[in-house]
Amino acid sequence: xxxxxxxxxxxxxxxxxxxxxxxxxxxxxxxxxxxxxxxxxxxxxxxxxxxxxxxxxxxxxxxxxxxxxxxxxxxxxxxxxxxxxxxxxxxxxxxxxxxxxxxxxxxxxxxxxxxxxxxxxxxxxxxxxxxxxxxxxxxxxxxxxxxxxxxxxxxxxxxxxxxxxxxxxxxxxxxxxxxxxxxxxxxxxxxxxxxxxxxxxxxxxxxxxxxxxxxxxxxxxxxxxxxxxxxxxxxxxxxxxxxxxxxxxxxxxxxxxxxxxxxxxxxxxxxxxxxxxxxxxxxxxxxxxxxxxxxxxxxxxxxxxxxxxxxxxxxxxxxxxxxxxxxxxxxxxxxxxx
Length: 338
Prior knowledge:
The protein has 338 residues and is an alpha/beta fold.
């Protein structure tokens, strides 16, 4: 079975092809066209600009994915597309393209949740990952702790009640006058931090598994304002980045480990754009090791948005008994839950 997947939920135009044989999912290609240089000018994603860039790039990206996989459209069995969550203008470009393609080549579609793509991304390199697992998904728009009892049995046990972790990283980066995207820049600046301002760890000790990063972000803002800190001083920027990152990572790690213990998980996975943060990867790995748990984290290129994770999630959905649908049944839902 061969699946062509397309991902346009935010500011990456991506396409990928996978081949499935029984329970084995084999990647054949993965192409991503990033819009980072485009959005760096505005220090954030402008939805209309992102959508127009998708229109310009999508056909070439799909053609390259097919070429890299060494197959033609006639060899495709199913199409997959991200139908949510995400920016509605971006989602529409990918879904309408796939619907048109579906009509043209008479192939059915597997609508796929973007967050499921992140959730299952660890399985691409670790197909024998032990279940049940606790999964920390941290991205620009979402922060979840998910219990995966079996491959197709998903339960959200915690999520952010305000800002997502990635959103907080980006907003703090803007306060520190760092370039877009903010997450990697915060991580880079934090390497040179010497002073820890000991920012609050919101909701770290609450009994639930929810998160709140709005207060932490505000604490950084007040620190800058009250102490009249100057962003022209590289050491001040480094110290603030260091302190903010320490606080955010501490909360993410503490709640994930506690969830793993309560639900008797056999493994932990970390995914989403913020999963590329080296401190988060290290601290969660160290904490998991103390509990004699294995942490699985996708390669850096699979943490940011890509279509390979969508193709993989679609294949897992298919293996779980999902029946692909006609193009008329595919709807965009920017607020879709995992």
